[in-house]
Amino acid sequence: MADTLEFNEIYQEVKGSMNDGRLRLSRQGVIFKNSKTGKVDNIQASELAEGVWRRVALGHGLKLLTKNGHVYKYDGFRESEFDKLSDFFKAHYCLELAEKDLCVKGWNWGTVRFGGQLLSFDIGEQPVFEIPLSNVSQCTTGKNEVTLEFHQNDDAEVSLMEVRFYVPPTQEDGVDPVEAFAQNVLSKADVIQATGDAICIFRELQCLTPRGRYDIRIYPTFLHLHGKTFDYKIPYTTVLRLFLLPHKDQRQMFFVISLDPPIKQGQTRYHFLILLFSKDEDISLTLNMNEEEVEKRFEGRLTKNMSGSLYEMVSRVMKALVNRKITVPGNFQGHSGAQCITCSYKASSGLLYPLERGFIYVHKPPVHIRFDEISFVNFARGTTTTRSFDFEIETKQGTQYTFSSIEREEYGKLFDFVNAKKLNIKNRGLKEGMKQSYDEYADSDEDQHDAYLERMKEEGKIREENANDSSDGSGEETDSSFNPGEEDDDVAEEFDSNASASSSSGDGDSDRDDKKPAKKAKIVKERKPRKKQPESKKGKDPNAPKRPMSAYMLWLNASREKIKSDHPGISITDLSKKAGELWKAMSKEKKEEWDRKAEDARRDYEKAMKEYSVGSKADSHRGERSKKKKKKQEKQVKGKGDKKGATSKSSSSKSPAKGMSDSFKSKEFVSSDESSSAESKKEDSEEEGAASPAPSSEDSASGSD
């Protein structure tokens, strides 16, 4: 027979809720590990008193009773597993696995039996239902009646909150059956009553979740948080884990208490109680117990009089009362020397602590993730900047946590930590490339050779040479056509201080001298082509031949898909760096092959460029002829306008001053601006119609003829 039995997807009934987990039976005892919280229940083989096999809603169940009165229920077994379990109990635990079926008659009259921490309502020899007394939050009595109230189960949609029992009176003198029933319940119930004095009190402690300042009163069985608005009573049995975490500033400490079930404030559930302490704050503590009681109860872990840092005293007292070890950060050390990493989770910034068996994030909202529930982790590129990255964790239940805005300098330490813990990294190939880039960044050396950077510089020189060789006025745009130095010079010339001074002085002189506008028009005429010069560079002829690629770029285009297949998930920048390394390591013979291809492409480009230049020159000649023809037509139109202006000036003898001021235009001004000539033409035509006399009857008659 096997020494161990293991069962997956077994459900443990705890306070009315069914917790999924794994059950293992061995010679030493029974171990159940909760998949949700990671809590482990260990029942020693010597403590087992009884085992019961019965049919339940989830198939078949196993109920174990211990010698100290505790009851453990596990459901989810198959009927065929009974023989295997029965033989195992006989061989290793010397117990007979009894079969007991529940009574389903539907009667509501029976007997109540108290066995350990269990209330069983029986009809005959068969139980109808059982109530764990640890679920009872309150017990009240009335005339021949006892009422039990239960803790609310947050995991269940519908919870049983109250049960009433009718207890008939008896003829025995001096014994009240109702009070006896209530005392049996209260002796085992989870009813928190702040009776007696607290062991010690910590006043005005800063609490981050729930937020506020609270007085913490330490009682033998529970913790009492007393604030201005809310009060919380936390049984020590609900404390799952304790954490003591140093802040990144090395001046503060976090003390985190993990709770299951959580404390409630309205509809909000707090699974973690987080206290913030200053390292400089000290306290002298005296326990409200005599030295003998302290020694007997805590066995040297606490003394009656203690002094030291406040966070040390709180953590020491909690460790002794809860009887759980305090988890502290392990050997992880970040880039800045701290034992945590600054990051953001959801909308808030906080600190992520890599622990020996998990990760914990504080503080809003607090998150604790164990290594055994992690499916894989992922290092992702930051969405807003390349100076940071995201750390993603996905659990086996499908829940994903994303810690963003982590400084890139922290990558190497975090990757080494995850790798050492043997966690599954989703994109390991990509991240090894990132690790290499991080090392290069951390150990940056100006003399270190970068193949990719050198290749980019070489291609930039080739572009400049090709641009200088092919600049023949055809309007072709190359990658090097944008020259910041030249553009700055244009701007400096156009808005030069001398030019602005001359233009402003011209404005001032125009008020005093009528001859100055001609000089001002000359300035506009010289500046106008300079404004149009950058605009001519914007248009790129789509028919122009494309610039040839270098040998490296030809090889990269041919090898890009192969590099992607060899490194799945690789990013664009990492692909370029990898390509630079491969090109640098390539033999001289292979490089010469790509150099020949690049030379052939350059010859083809030069040949196509010559043909394109001839065609573009012919097009430019045709364009110049059409421009000359258009200018000639404009001059003819202007000449007609001048003749009409002279006619209107002679005919407007009634108002000579007005005619002089409106129709006179400088010849230079008119020839320098096309728009002004059109406006003058329009004004002259309007003046002609307004100043000419009305036609006589003879003229109209001759016109009609």
UniProtKB/TrEMBL annotation:
Keywords: Chromosome, DNA damage, DNA repair, DNA replication, DNA-binding, Nucleus, Transcription, Transcription regulation. Residues 459-551, 609-705 are annotated as: Disordered. InterPro entries: HMG_box_dom, HMG_box_dom_sf, PH-like_dom_sf, RTT106/SPT16-like_middle_dom, RTT106/SSRP1_HistChap/FACT, SSRP1-like_PH1, SSRP1/POB3, SSRP1/POB3_N. GO terms for biological process: DNA repair; DNA replication; regulation of chromatin organization. Residues 517-531, 624-633 have a biased composition (Basic residues). Residues 497-507, 647-663, 690-705 have a biased composition (Low complexity). GO terms for cellular component: FACT complex; nucleolus. Residues 545-613 bind DNA. GO terms for molecular function: DNA binding; histone binding; nucleosome binding. Residues 545-613 form the HMG box domain. It comes from the Eukaryota. It is found in: Nucleus, Nucleolus; Nucleus; Chromosome. Residues 532-544, 634-645 have a biased composition (Basic and acidic residues). Residues 474-496 have a biased composition (Acidic residues). CDD domains: HMG-box_SSRP1-like, PH1_SSRP1-like, PH2_SSRP1-like. PROSITE patterns: HMG_BOX_2 (PS50118). Belongs to the SSRP1 family. Component of the FACT complex, a general chromatin factor that acts to reorganize nucleosomes. The FACT complex is involved in multiple processes that require DNA as a template such as mRNA elongation, DNA replication and DNA repair. During transcription elongation the FACT complex acts as a histone chaperone that both destabilizes and restores nucleosomal structure. This is FACT complex subunit SSRP1.
